[in-house]
Amino acid sequence: MNIPFAQRFATRVLSHAPRSPKTRTWVTLVVTAVCIGLAIVMSRVLSDPTSRLNPLLLLGGVAGLVVMLAWYSFGRIQHALWALALSGATLNFIAIGTGTESKVVLSLVIFIVLLTVWLMNSLLNRVPLFRSSPVNVPIFAFIAVNLISYGWSFAMRDPLVDSVLQAWPRFILAQAAGLGMNILLPLLCLVVVSTIREERWMRGLVVIMLFLAGLNAASKIFNLPIEPLLKNGSKGLFVMWGGVFAYAQLLFNNELSLPRKGICAVILVGILYYYGITQTLWLSGWLPLGVGIAVITWFRSKKLFVTMAVIVLVYVAIDFNDLYAKIFQSNVDEGGLGRLDIWRLNLGHVANHWLFGMGPAGYALYNIFYHPTEARSTHNNYFDVLAQTGVVGLLIFVWLLIRFLQVGLNTRAAVANQLDFKEMLANATLGGLFGTIVGMALGDWVLPFAFNQTISGFDNALYTWLFLGCMVSLYLSLHRTNPSKAAITPK
Under a CB-based contact definition with an 8 Å cutoff, are residues 87 and 31 in contact? Predict the structure, then answer.
């Protein structure tokens, strides 16, 4: 291909985007609103078998509008990230089949397009692809170890499991998809760090998160017909992120007017009511949120933290038997303790593949051959990372979490006592990080496992990487304006 011609063509395409930032913003918002409106109509059509309306027509219309949205977002990656956040929790049913139970969801398609545009923009404008940050090295190292583990899984595979592979040829596709998840989600964090530099873009993402969280809580509590629309994207740590932002807005952001704080309070109450009272069995729904709220409270006021802790302890003491039955006993009855056996079995295989693991999704082959009646995923991201990438991969991932923690603590300290959006964001993302660390032990909510959530788990996993990227970006902006406030040297 003639490279200069390709550059001229791409530049001409990019130049068709509206020049005025205000115009681009309004076009993006209008197109996104139409997308969501059609998606709601389509969700009703799909749930009503008597409807004569062809859903494929609506699917084509939504796809066309998404293409328009991508067109207007050229040169404005931030708009595409807003669209990504919206699509993750509202357009779950629009997906591309892969011939397996796993589907390529729209949010994943948008991110792949976004990633392509980001690369084009860097090449055409000759700007650095990645912004220097404290998390770059551990993220690149984690991506590298996944690639190594992928090749390692073929070279060091137990010959006995080849019989399973021969009877299950689609496993190769699933393994490639698992590798993609382990690479694309950390890359999402780097894209956010490199492109979300201004506070207004972060504000937009927080507003989107609160809107989606409130919509999800309302749909669950009032059994609204849009519930199928939100089903996949509202899994995992989506609930926690909505809750910590609503709570942090109340405690730290005095820039908000009283009516807006009232809206945040309503959203928080709705989340706590549905997931904390009516869905106590689902630990992944309320426990990470509880941890996040506890951390945010601690940083706001030690007295408030002690007061809340006393109230919780008194409540638990008064209603202990009922809570024990609803939470612990119900989880035992649902097979919760069976995870201990799953972890024990998988550790046996890890012992034989301890350096780089069994490759992305690789331990599924070993479970099917050696433990056909217990061939389940670990439902634990730490065990998944260990089994897939070995001790090396787990150590790198823990290093990444430590880096995020260092960034979060330094960012919070740098904006302490400002009681504005920046302090709210710093505390919300730090509380969310602690909730994420707990949530990873309860499921594959941060790096979806190919045979549990499947790659459709990208819908809900993206919010963790999106907001951790915002946390790092805020840290870098503070480091740029006042280097003495940041203790970590970016690498």
Answer: no
What is the per-residue pLDDT for 147? 97
CB half-sphere exposure, 226, CA atoms < 13 A: 21
How far is the C-alpha of 220 from the C-alpha of 225, rounded, in Å? 10
Strand partners, 95: 105
Digit-coded pLDDT (tens) for 252-287? 999 999 999 999 999 999 999 999 888 888 888 899
Instruction: Report yes or no: 488 and 400 within 8 Å, Cβ to Cβ.
Output: no
What backbone phi and psi angles, to 5 degrees, belong to 104?
-85, 105
Pairing of strands 95-97, 103-105: antiparallel
By the 10 Å C-beta count (0-12 exposed, 13-18 middle, 19+ buried), 264 is classed as buried
First and final C-alpha spacing in the chain: 36
Give 137-190 pLDDT, tens digit per residue. 999 999 999 999 999 988 888 888 877 777 677 788 888 889 999 999 999 999
- pLDDT reported for residue 417: 93
d(CA 171, CA 450): 10
Cα dist from 474 to 51, 190, 229, 240, 445, whole Å: 48, 13, 32, 20, 24
9 CB-contact burial (10 Å; exposed 0-12 / middle 13-18 / buried 19+): exposed
Residue of 427, 359, 366, 437 lying closest to 177 (CA atoms): 359
Alpha-carbon radius of gyration of the chain: 23
Q: Spell out, as residue ranges, where the chain has pLDDT lower than 50.
A: 1-19, 43, 45-54, 56-57, 73-75, 489-491
Give the Å distances, CA to CA, from 252 to 21, 255, 291, 481. 30, 9, 17, 22
Q: Which residue has the tokens 């008064």?
A: 318
* DSSP-assigned beta bridge partners for residue 105: 95
How much is the pTM? 0.85
